[in-house]
């Protein structure tokens, strides 16, 4: 038997053998024993069994799990409820289990006791539960992995696009520098030309004299005149190295502009792409080629002629249209977009609250710096700007404005009062122009033509007469922030390019300075907003009256420097310096070249008249008087400084 | 500032008030300029924004006038000109046409010019004399405007 048992033990289950062995132990009969018929076994005392017997044989003390195990081997609990009046013959707490092949004294039959399902060690119940959860786990981990991958890609993409933006910005910066250098070259060239001209003039004076002495000494007079005759024909022309250099310059310039154009396009695309997935209403990609509507409507009828000009020039001149020096482009760089993307909609809802709020439809909230010492003006101006969905920062005087810009604050537009304590607006602009080209608009009641000429000379881009109106302010914004509109216009066509190289442009200025600080005529046009730049800058959207269609032309054509006649000639939006250089450079030699102030003055008078007509206002009465005043000696500059000093003197006015 | 004044007169003749329910200021205030400030008020009953600006201007003007008096005594023409310019800006922004025009004259006279700024006036005594008159005038004009505006904001 034993041998059999041993044999059978090999083929029978461990559990069953342990079970059988457990029942063979007579000491435990009071706890667990064979049933009365020998075909079942009974657990008499559940508690003792669990605590003492189970650990001994099955290394655990969990009755439930023991029962489960039994079930797996197809043992069944014997129920006595229905038979014999429901009472177990072994007592109330007894558990009787039974298997057909589990019988006392029949070890061989144990071999027949198998787990219910042929499934391997892992029980039957498990697979149904576990396999799905396993799969779920798998899916989950895959999902997580994918998500991580995606996130990584996203991060990588963001990083790359930021780098891209930074590179673009850098590139634009480099371009700016290049352009600046080019301008410097231009000025140097110009200077050289004038020096050259002077030298030639001198030589012209000297040569005849020299030839005489030569002739007298050498006695070869007959031949000399023929030789001498040659140089005079050249004398009107600058030295050939100079010509070469200027030609080179103009060629290089054109090439450069072509590149920057592409770059800007890239930049714009990038921005639009970014905007299209950050803002719900994607930017309307249609670039109106007939760029009539928005900006021009704000201005006067003359813009038509400019429109024609644009249509004519733009497709041909690659170098037209985008001013790489315009620092506003930096703000177009999109990596600052996402956080701001929600702002427009927010602003819009805010705007709708008030009937007075106008939403000019910015693609991005314009950042405006309002420089104004007077609290009243500052608050009202700020309120208007806010109503136009602009973000307003304010500075109390020129010094603060310079500091803000110098500290790296970026603005799309600066509105600058002129007369302020500590540092006046013109000086502030002059300083700012040493390092920044953000459009600066003079905001002042001193709007006489000579004042205005001076504002422009020092690098201001426009004039908003005080007291300004909402409309005037808005049209000024639209004019200079056209690139921030949702329907992008070719930006710089709409705006005055900033005064390019203030230091150079300003150098000869004292000759022209005739600043009368505070005497605007007793009456001033109230609602005027736009002033055309007297500078040769953009044939933009200034409301020049029809009588003065192309005020810049005199400058464009009058420039004595040969290189200015290059490709820039027809290009309106081009960086003005090459053109401007001659204008200023022409001054010091004294009456050399066409001096612009006179025509300029007339333009202003005309603008003025045109504007006051538009505003339905008064006839410009002070014309004759102003003409007179215009001729006033330049000594008035001193006055202005005096005033600055007065302000500085500290009136302790409330701010 | 002549045209607004004319418009204001025209309006007062019509007896029509502006779209913002602007009362008749009889040319003391340029309605167009002032209305666009009123339009900025969120609440047409409270008029918080414009009221605070206008009332701030009142105290600012009061202070400026005091300083003008001090500088009149000190015969500090330059300061007077500067003060005139200062008050000119804010009064113009608020559409207080008459005050603004007077301030401009103060500015000119302080700069030793004729009141309209058309020619130089080197005689300081003359300038000071004119300044006294014009500052008095400006104060009166300001008082008128102030009264009207206080009535507008705080109807009794």
TrEMBL record, chain A:
Q: GO CC: one term?
A: nucleus
Q: Where is the composition biased (Polar residues)?
A: 285-305, 520-532
- Which SMART domains does the protein's record reference? HSF, REC
Where does this protein have compositionally biased stretches of type Low complexity? 502-511, 635-645
Residue ranges annotated for the Response regulatory domain, each copy included? 367-481
Annotated positions of the 4-aspartylphosphate modification: 417
Composition bias, Gly residues: 646-655
PANTHER family given in the database record: HYBRID SIGNAL TRANSDUCTION HISTIDINE KINASE J (PTHR45339)
Name assigned to this protein: Transcription factor
Organism the protein comes from:
Cladosporium halotolerans
UniProtKB/TrEMBL annotation, chain B:
Could you tell me which residues belong to the region Disordered?
Answer: 1-32
> What's any GO biological process attached to this entry?
phosphorelay signal transduction system
All copies of the HPt domain together span 46-152
Which UniProt keyword terms apply here? Phosphoprotein
Gene Ontology cellular-component annotations: cytoplasm; nucleus
The record's section on InterPro entries has: AHP1-5/YPD1, HPT_dom_sf, Sig_transdc_His_kin_Hpt_dom
Q: Which SUPFAM superfamilies match?
A: Histidine-containing phosphotransfer domain, HPT domain
Q: PANTHER family in the record, alphabetically? A: PHOSPHORELAY INTERMEDIATE PROTEIN YPD1
**What is the name listed in the Swiss-Prot or TrEMBL entry for this protein?**
HPt domain-containing protein
Question: What organism is the protein native to?
Answer: Cladosporium halotolerans
């Amino acid at each position: 038997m034993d041998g059999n048992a041993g044999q059978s033990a090999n083929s029978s289950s461990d559990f069953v053998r342990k079970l059988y062995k457990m029942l063979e132990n007579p000491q435990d009969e009071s706890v667990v024993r064979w049933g009365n018929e020998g075909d079942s076994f009974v657990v008499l005392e559940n508690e003792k069994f669990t605590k003492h017997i189970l650990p001994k044989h099955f290394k655990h003390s969990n009755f439930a799990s023991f029962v489960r195990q039994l079930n797996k081997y197809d043992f069944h609990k014997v129920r006595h409820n229905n038979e014999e009046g429901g009472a177990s013959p072994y007592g109330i707490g007894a558990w009787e289990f039974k298997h057909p092949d589990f019988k006392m004294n029949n070890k061989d039959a144990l071999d027949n006791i198998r787990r219910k399902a042929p499934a391997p060690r892992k029980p039957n119940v498990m697979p149904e539960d576990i396999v799905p959860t396993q799969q779920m786990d798998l899916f989950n981990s895959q999902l997580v992995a994918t998500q991580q991958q995606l996130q990584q890609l996203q991060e990588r993409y963001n990083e790359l696009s930021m780098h891209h933006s930074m590179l673009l910005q850098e590139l634009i910066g480099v371009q700016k520098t290049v352009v600046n250098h080019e301008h410097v070259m231009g000025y140097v060239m110009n200077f050289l030309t004038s020096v050259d001209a002077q030298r030639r003039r001198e030589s012209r004076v000297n040569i005849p004299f020299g030839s005489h002495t030569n002739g007298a000494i050498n006695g070869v007079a007959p031949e000399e005149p023929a030789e001498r005759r040659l140089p005079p024909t050249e004398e009107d022309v600058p030295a050939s190295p100079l010509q070469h250099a200027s030609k080179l310059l103009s060629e290089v310039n054109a090439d450069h502009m072509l590149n920057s154009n592409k770059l800007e396009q890239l930049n714009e695309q990038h921005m639009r792409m970014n905007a299209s997935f950050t803002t719900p209403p994607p930017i309307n990609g249609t670039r109106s080629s007939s760029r009539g509507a928005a900006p021009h409507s704000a201005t006067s009828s003359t813009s038509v002629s400019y429109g024609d000009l644009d249509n004519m020039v733009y497709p041909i001149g690659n170098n037209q249209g985008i001013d790489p020096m315009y620092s506003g482009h930096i703000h177009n760089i999109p990596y600052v977009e996402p956080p701001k993307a929600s702002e427009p909609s927010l602003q819009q809802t805010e705007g709708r609250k008030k009937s007075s709020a106008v939403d000019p439809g910015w693609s991005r909230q314009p950042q405006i710096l309002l420089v104004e010492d007077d609290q009243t003006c500052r608050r009202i101006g700020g309120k208007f700007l806010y109503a136009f969905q602009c973000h307003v920062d304010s500075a109390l005087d020129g010094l603060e404005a310079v500091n803000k810009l110098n500290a790296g604050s970026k603005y799309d537009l600066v509105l600058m009062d002129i007369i302020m304590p500590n540092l006046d607006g013109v000086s502030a602009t002059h300083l700012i122009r040493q390092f920044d080209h953000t459009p600066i608009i003079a905001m002042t009641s001193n709007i006489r033509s000579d004042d205005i000429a001076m504002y422009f000379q020092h690098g201001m881009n426009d004039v908003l007469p005080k007291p300004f109106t909402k409309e005037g302010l808005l049209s000024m914004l639209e004019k200079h922030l056209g690139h921030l509109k949702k329907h992008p216009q070719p930006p710089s066509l709409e705006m005055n390019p900033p005064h390019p190289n203030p230091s150079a442009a300003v150098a000869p200025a004292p000759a022209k300075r005739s600043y009368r600080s505070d005497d605007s005529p007793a009456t001033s046009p109230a609602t005027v907003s736009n002033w055309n730049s007297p500078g040769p800058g953009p044939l933009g959207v200034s409301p020049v009256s029809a009588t003065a269609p192309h005020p810049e032309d005199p400058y464009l054509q009058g420039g004595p420097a040969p290189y200015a006649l290059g490709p820039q000639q027809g290009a309106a939006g081009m960086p003005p310096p090459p053109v401007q250089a001659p204008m200023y450079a022409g001054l010091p030699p004294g009456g050399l070249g066409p001096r612009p102030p006179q025509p300029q003055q007339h333009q202003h008078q005309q603008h003025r008249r045109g504007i006051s007509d538009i505003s339905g206002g008064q006839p410009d009465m002070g014309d004759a008087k102003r003409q007179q005043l215009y001729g006033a000696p330049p000594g008035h500059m001193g006055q202005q400084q005096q005033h600055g000093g007065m302000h500085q003197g500290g009136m302790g006015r409330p701010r | 500032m002549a045209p607004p004044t004319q418009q204001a007169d025209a309006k007062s003749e019509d007896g029509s008030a502006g779209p913002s329910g602007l009362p008749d200021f009889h040319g003391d205030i340029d309605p167009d300029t002032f209305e666009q400030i009123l339009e900025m008020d969120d609440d047409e009953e409270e008029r918080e924004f414009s009221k605070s600006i206008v009332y701030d201007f009142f105290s600012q003007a009061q202070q400026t006038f005091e300083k003008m008096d001090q500088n009149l005594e000190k015969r500090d023409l330059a300061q007077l000109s500067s003060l005139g310019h200062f008050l000119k800006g804010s009064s113009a922004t608020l559409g207080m046409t008459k005050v603004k025009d007077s301030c401009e004259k103060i500015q000119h006279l302080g700069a030793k010019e004729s009141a309209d700024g058309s020619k130089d006036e080197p005689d300081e005594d003359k300038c000071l004399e004119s300044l006294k008159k014009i500052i008095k005038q400006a104060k009166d004009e300001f008082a008128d405007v102030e009264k009207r505006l206080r009535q507008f904001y705080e109807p009794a």
